[in-house]
Predict the structure.
Amino acid sequence: MGKLALKDLNPQQRAAVTAPDGPALVLAGPGSGKTRVLTYRVAWLTLERSVPPGQVMAVTFTNKAAREMRERLQHLLGHARAGSLTLGTFHATCARILRREAKVAGIPRDYVIFDADDQRTLVRQVLRELDIDVKQYRPTAVHGAISRAKNELIPPEAYQPSSYFGEIVRRVYERYQERLRANGGLDFDDLLVETVRLFREHPEVLGRYQERYLHALVDEFQDTNMAQYILLRQLAARHRNLFAVADEDQSIYRWRGADYRNITRLREDYPDLAVYLLEQNYRSTQTILDAAQAIIRRNPNRTEKRLFTRRGTGLKVTVHEAYDQDEEARFVVNTIAELTLQGKARPGECAVMYRTNAQSRALEEAFLRAGLPYRLVGATRFYARREIKDLIAFLRLIHNPTDATSLTRIINIPPRGIGKRTLLALEEAARARGVPLWQIVEEVGTHQDTPLLGGRAQGAVTRLYRMVRGWIEAREGATVVQLMDQVLAETGYEAYLRDGTEEGDDRWNNVQELRAVAAEYAGLTLTDFLADVALVSDVDNLADGVDAPTLLTLHSAKGLEFPVVFITGLEEGLLPHSRSLDDPESLAEERRLMYVGITRARDRLYLTYAFRRVRYATSEPNAPSRFLEALPPHLTEGSRIRSGKRRVEQAIAWTTSWTPTATPSFTTGDRVMHRVFGRGVVLESQARGDDEEVTVAFETAGLKRIMGSYLTPAD
Ligand code: ATP
Ligand code: MG
């Protein structure tokens, strides 16, 4: 069929790809080629139906998914055509629309995007301002409630509290929104809300976009929220070419306002909706699919879908019971090392998943001890690091000096003699006169005789003002990297960070890393750079091209696939999560989450749990997850779930093997060899479970603590 190889698709997929104009929904299970169908349809529309690429919009769930889709389309369409597609996450797409229509939308063109951290900081500030106890009303919880309201398109004035907590939320929501506006800021949710509002209030603007986008396509439709759904409906109202791809069983973002009932809404709103079903799974072995179905089948109110594969039965699912989280982590690392050594998988083909971010700690440690590299998604988000936030605050200030959050962040970083009291006086003056904090700084900085501050403080503020003023003036003719360099040089930031400790060097490396990110794009404007930075979600920390296992939460694994998958922490209270145990709706979501995790695996699946796990500083025995019990025994191998006496006996056996019984095989002075670190000398050795922990002075790599099983004697 012409330029596009439709032979790469099965008949059902082909029918969906070449669907006639009008609303369409592809409903299918994991690994059935939904994302592939969506990508091919974009290519088909452009190549076979001659739709100009500039008139096609495709929305995906994460930046990573959007990038992958763009790459595939570059392959199918060539760079030029792929470049003119509107392709991105909902948030990125809305951010661009708002930037373009800022004037009509009544928001500053240079608006700042408040990321998750900024949002929490602002909520905390508001709680303090309103004299609300932050211990009793956690900023995260309050912000979560505000976010849900926004995603339902409920503005502060229409918020109907149904409890005392709700009343607190209402008050904070109102003030939070005022503060955002005063800072020239929008939070993530505002990007959607403001776009919907813009389209509602300005039909002529909406008309232009409706005219432009002949086709709108959306992946992972089951995880859209109300605001996103309305937005799609607005955009598709004229041409009605809405193409959605979904799997109800993979809806895992209810807590963020996602609503899989949007699938029902779509059917109701478009009675002529053409529905396509895909049945063949191309990703996993039949054993993995059967395991996944054994879990999801327990959810009520779902349409049973049969998943079949031509990939054969495959290997059994390995279930492993560990003594505690450290032993569990060692099992994961050892298994990956073994698979790699035996040539069965490359490290980069393995993924380790968990329910909560905190679980990554033990895993990371095990990888570090083994001297094996890994990639971590989430937890220590690069953009959440202090030094990165500082540097971005400087840039945001250059971009928009009225951004008081950024200004307060860096006003005394590196320390420049603007203490707490000075800042308070400045803030007080700004509040009293209802002007931005920056204006007060400007007044102090230009009228040397302002009586507001004492002489020394006034000098310090003046120096800061002149420095920032200089950057703002330099902005026009400078690249982002040049601006960054100027900021770093004039603030003396390097000397401030590099305090001679290893941590200081690491932090400075992070700064260099951010500089490298900015240097990657020639012609990048400061505005675009800041928008990109604000929009990188956790999953974007996945450094492509490094051959190392990926550590990630089940939530961020959505849409991805790996030959080898470990799902760890299969314990009651963890997976399913304790918060879900007495709410059937939440429990159903936990099952879907488990289902998403299992169906990421192509060939090998390992499910692990620990007998004891340290949580909140206490160590408690755990019951294995009900999800393990739901698996038919013929699909699994390895430790079966023990109960009663057997578990107790096993626990005693573990505890005794924990005490150093085996004599360490390495002693002080031994010469050893490590695959990555090379030669070294043993300084100290201590038994750890069935292994030993050895401190080694390596010739080039310095001092490291390594598990003995990763060392070989050297002469
Ligand atoms: P998920 O629900 O997990 O997002 P999906 O339905 O989007 O899954 P894809 O990621 O599009 O599925 O496809 C799963 C895998 O199967 C991919 O590796 C894809 O390249 C492959 N695949 C899909 N269709 C075919 C086909 N017709 N022939 C060969 N491989 C295919
Ligand atoms: Mg997909």
